[in-house]
Each structure stands twice: as C-alpha cells, then as structure tokens.
Design goal:
Elements (H helix, E strand, L loop, with lengths): L1 H28 L9 E9 L9 E5 L5 E5 L5 E6 L3 E7 L8 E2 L3 E6 L4 E7 L13 H32 L6 H18 L4 H30 L4 H23 L15 E2 L4 E2 L1 H23 L1 H11 L1 H6 L4 H26 L6 H16 L4 H17 L9 H15 L13
Parallel strand pairs: 1-8
Antiparallel strand pairs: 1-4, 2-3, 2-5, 5-7, 6-8, 9-10
C-alpha cells in the first residue's frame, strides 16, 4: 500500500498544477472577452516575407457611424476597439506605405463575439509569379528567413520523429505542443510578470513535464495498454489537436499576442540582408539545443536505448530495456523541444492559437523528407523544407509557399522513397 501511495503522489501534484495553470489561463484569457461590446480588432501590415510594416495608417468604420483610426507599431500591428455583432470596413491608407497592397486596401470584416485579426500584405506583382521581382537582396533576405524558419521546424520535427520512432504514433497534435509552449510562456510573461528571459526556460520545463510526460502518462500510455491500434490513436491525436486549439482560442481569443519584452527590435544591417538580434540569439541557442540532443541520443545510455526501441521495440524489451521509461523520456524531450520552437516563433513573429496548426504539415514534410526514424534526417529535412518555403515566394504567391515545400517532398520521395538519409528496406 505504501508503494501505491508513493506512485500516486506525482499524479496528485500534476492535477493540482493543471488546475492552477488553468486558473491563470482563465484570468488572463477571459478578461478581454468579458464584455461583448469591447472587442479588439488587430490590423497587421506586413510584406511578402512577413516583415512588419510600421507607420501604416488604417481606419475602421461601422454601419452605425462608429469610426476609429490607428497606426501600426514596430510589430506592424494596430489595435482598434470594436463592438460585437457588426460588420466593419477596414481601410489601409496606401499613401502611408511604400509598396502596393496585395488583394486591395479595403476589407469587410464580420465581428461576432471574439477578437478579430485582419492582415494586409504588401508586395510587387501580387505576391509572386514570374521572375520580375527577383533580386540578389531579396533572395538573400528570403534565405536568411528560411534558415530562421528551419530552426523552428527542426526543433519540433526532431521530437515528432522520436515519438513516431518509439511508439509508431503519427501525432497530429504535435503542432499544439508548440502552441502550448508559446502560450505557457505568454501566461508567465504577461500574467505573472516574469521577464521572458526567465519565463521561457520555465515554460519549457512546464511543457516538458505537463504537456509531454503528463500527456503520455494519462492518455497515450493507457491507450497502449488497452491495445489501441495506430489508426485509432492517430484519430485520437486529431481530436486532441482540435480540442486544444479551441480551448486556447476560448481562453485567449484569436488575436495575435506578443511578449512584453523584445517585441520590437531594430534589425542589424549586414549588407544585403537585415536580421534582428533576437533571431541571431535564438538561432544560436537552437544550434546548441539540437547539437546536445543529437549527442545525447548517440552517446548516452538512455539515448542508445531510445534508438534501440526505435529500431525494434520487442527486441529492446527482451534485452532488458525499459520501453515505457524510454517512451516517457521521448515525450518529455519532444514536448520540451516543441515548446522552445513555440517560444522561438512567438518572439520572432506573434503568439497565435493557430501557430502550431500552420506549421504541422511542414513538420511532417521534414521528417518524411529526411527519412523516417533517422536522427539527422529530421534536421536536414527541416532545412530543406524551411528554405524551400521561403524561396518559393520568388515564384509563387505567399499563400502557396507551404504547398511548394510539400510538392518538393513528393518529387524527392518519387526519386528516393526512403528519404534523404533513410535506409532502403526490403518489402515482402
């Protein structure tokens, strides 16, 4: 009986922690939605590379005569109060921007009971097509943006690859691990008043323990014990992803949010490209994190056990490897890596409830393209996908850049089905 009591104590602590964190989420997220007549319209102005455009003037008009104006800040955002259950007309003053507005400078937006976001994109020639807009400076800037995006994809994809390798689960809720990490850091930063430099590592630890270990302990481990098939588990992951996504938007609203520190930085001029200090620092940390993870997987005892379980779980178990311990470790590691990817993305762009959903297909593309089950394959595939996504905007509209990366994945798999670093397997 004493052993049972000791074993149950972490569960009680975890439950208490969940209740406390949800309490903080309610206090932060429900505040703006308390009054249905005081919602927020977020207007974002950006170029084709998603760089913020400050100083752009926007006006909002409603049929009841309401009118308001705003100017975008360093993050390219203008926040304007609006009423619920109405339709407003949002107009971007073209005289205050230096590039043409893609798809027009006037938008009609339906405001119901939640905050709303409108995005105006600027660019030459409608956002791609042909080579008229291709210059050395633009290619270099897109390449830098692709490398930064690749680090985000690599952090999340490595965890996704490890979880797939050890459990066989195609986890469609992995993108939400990134989103949960970002929002956990946001709660600590904005509600608890902790500087993001301190809040970020705390959020990563919380995410690893709660969203990683806790998710496996209370959901996936019981399903494995009941013999749930991989197809059924995949469907569960899709349902879990949708649930998490709409719980977040219920508490926090749909408007993009930013951390209180480092929201706007002056880019460093490196000649033909611009890069912000936070992008350099976050990328350097990502290199260190990825390097340590790969070395741990290759050199440590538990890392070798993880690779053994990925290769043959039954044989690893027969050899004395504690498979469940390995799987728990992988979930902790995968959630921690995804949480850092979420903080990375939130600091360089914005924290929004769809951030993980938007990148999920690129995670899968990176893992498959690099080679399923390979450590380095997920990282190499991430850089191929990330750079392709950004450079593809030279030829296609920005809205199709993810499709370009997926098309590249299909072409490469037709030539090399095992992926870039995968091994050929005999079938039949």
């Amino acid at each position: 009986m004493q052993r049972s009591a000791r074993g149950s104590s972490p569960r009680w602590l975890l439950r208490l922690f969940i209740v406390g964190l949800l309490g903080i989420g309610v206090s932060v997220g429900m505040a703006p939605a308390a009054s249905a007549e005081d919602l927020q319209l977020t207007v974002r102005v950006q170029d084709e590379e998603r760089n913020a455009i400050p100083g752009a003037s926007v006006t909002v008009e409603a049929p009841d005569g309401y009118s308001a104006a705003g100017t975008t800040d360093d993050e390219g955002l203008a926040l304007i109060p609006v009423s619920a259950n109405t339709i407003v007309t949002v107009t971007l003053d073209e005289a205050t921007v230096t590039q043409p507005v893609i798809e027009g400078n006037v938008r009609e937006v339906s405001i119901l009971t939640r905050d709303k976001t409108v995005i105006f994109r600027l660019g030459e020639g409608g956002g791609g097509g042909g080579g008229s807009g291709i210059t050395l400076e633009r290619v270099a800037q897109l390449l830098v943006g692709g490398v930064v995006l690749s680090f985000v994809i690599a952090l999340a994809s490595l965890g996704l690859s490890l979880i797939f390798g050890t459990t066989g689960l195609t986890n469609f809720s992995h993108g939400e691990l990134l989103t949960l990490g970002a929002f956990t850091a946001l709660v600590l930063n904005t509600a608890a008043g902790i500087n993001i430099i301190i809040a970020a590592p705390i959020a990563i630890i919380i995410s690893a323990a709660l969203w990683g270990w806790g998710q496996n302990q209370f959901l996936w481990r019981p399903l494995r014990r009941k013999g749930t098939g991989l197809i059924a588990a995949m469907i569960v992951s899709i349902g879990l992803a949708i649930t998490i996504r709409y719980v977040i938007v219920f508490f926090f609203g749909g408007a993009p949010k930013s951390f209180e520190q480092f929201a706007g930085q002056t880019p460093i001029d490196l000649g033909i490209v611009f890069v912000t200090p936070k992008e350099l620092i976050l990328s350097a940390i990502a290199i260190v994190v990825l390097t340590i993870t790969v070395l741990w997987l290759k050199g440590s005892r538990l890392g070798k056990a993880t690779r053994a379980v990925s290769d043959n779980p039954a044989l690893a178990s027969a050899s004395g490897v504690n498979v469940e311990r390995v799987i728990s470790t992988v979930w902790i590691l995968g959630a921690g890596l995804a949480a850092y990817a979420g903080v990375f993305l939130g600091l360089t762009q914005n924290v929004v409830w769809t951030m993980g959903q938007y990148l999920l297909l690129t995670f899968f593309a990176a893992v498959v393209l690099g080679g399923l089950g390979t450590i380095g394959g997920a990282i190499v595939g991430s850089f191929v996908v990330g750079i392709t996504v950004q450079l593809s905007t030279l030829l296609v509209p920005t809205e199709l850049k993810t499709a370009a990366a997926l098309f590249l994945m299909i072409i490469l798999l037709l030539i090399r089905p095992q992926g870039l670093l995968g091994r050929r397997e005999r079938v039949g």
